[in-house]
Amino acid sequence: MSSIRTLLVVIALFSNAMPALSASTDTLTKEQIAQQIIGKTLNARRMGLSVRIFYNSNGTVTMKFPLMSGAGTWAYQGDGLCMTLTSGPKRGKTCVTFEYLGGTRYRNSQGIEFDVAR
Question: Three-state DSSP class for 24?
Fold first, then answer.
């Protein structure tokens, strides 16, 4: 009976620790986005297709898929950025934040993981 109680305590402690572990991932700040994302090519896969995104330092953004492309503008919003595509497959405004995963890997708040070409 004592070993079952110990096991339940360990499981409870481990379960309580899990949210803290996932919360340790920090959202990039505006300054970090400027240094690590802006002016660099982002390579990702979306719905099985490769996509390349480039946030230019002049406030424009381009997206390239194998058979189509898109373009528009972007601006900072808090510790994230919003892009407004005026052409391409997904026109309109989308706002995201970014988190660093290590190496050249990042993930945006839509769950898309990408590599930054240095």
Answer: coil
Q: What Cα–Cα distance (Å) separates residue 8 from each residue in 17, 18, 20, 21?
A: 14, 16, 19, 20
Domain at 26-117: CATH code: 2.40.128.640
Print pLDDT tens along the chain (118 aa).
443 333 233 233 333 333 332 334 589 999 999 999 999 999 998 778 899 999 999 999 999 988 889 999 999 999 999 999 999 877 999 999 999 999 999 999 999 999 998 6
Output the 3-class SS for 49-115.
Answer: EEEEEEECCCCEEEEECCCCEEEEEEEEECCEEEEEEEECCCCEEEEECEEEEECCEEEECCCCEEE
Of 70, 47, 74, 80, nearest in space to 60 by CA: 74
